[in-house]
Amino acid sequence: MRWVIGALALLLALLQFQLWFGPGSVPTLIELHSSLDEQRQANERAQARNDALAAEVEDLKEGLDALEERARYQLGMIREDETFYQVIEED
């Protein structure tokens, strides 16, 4: 009877060791949950950025106002009837 209790105690100790220190242990599970939360947040940020870029692409395809605005600010476009003034700030 003693050897059965000893064997069960040894089995319990082995299972506890695997639960706390082995592969798939509780600390590993907590770490995985943490990294999963971080990845979900990164995915949400990336999805928001992708949505904004898709809206900008659609706006550039459909409307001339967005295209003109980009040409003005990025390429320095001016119309024929406009006068260009460059203001230089001195420190």
UniProtKB/TrEMBL annotation:
From the Swiss-Prot or TrEMBL record, give the protein name: Cell division protein FtsB
Entry keyword Repressor: no
Localization per record: Cell inner membrane
Membrane topology per record: Single-pass type II membrane protein
- The coiled-coil regions, if any, are 29-70
- UniProt entry tagged with the keyword Cell cycle: yes
Assigned protein family: Belongs to the FtsB family.
Q: Give one Pfam family, short name only.
A: DivIC
State the organism of origin: Halorhodospira halochloris
Extract the signal peptide range: none
Positions on the Periplasmic side per record topology: 22-91
Role this protein plays: Essential cell division protein. May link together the upstream cell division proteins, which are predominantly cytoplasmic, with the downstream cell division proteins, which are predominantly periplasmic.
Primary subcellular site in the record, as a coarse category: membrane
Record keywords, A-Z: Cell cycle, Cell division, Cell inner membrane, Cell membrane, Coiled coil, Membrane, Transmembrane, Transmembrane helix
Write out the topological domains of type Cytoplasmic.
1-3
What is the name of the gene encoding this protein? ftsB
State any GO BP term from the record. Answer: FtsZ-dependent cytokinesis
- Entry's Gene Ontology cellular component terms: cell division site; cell septum; plasma membrane
Describe its partners and assembly state: Part of a complex composed of FtsB, FtsL and FtsQ.
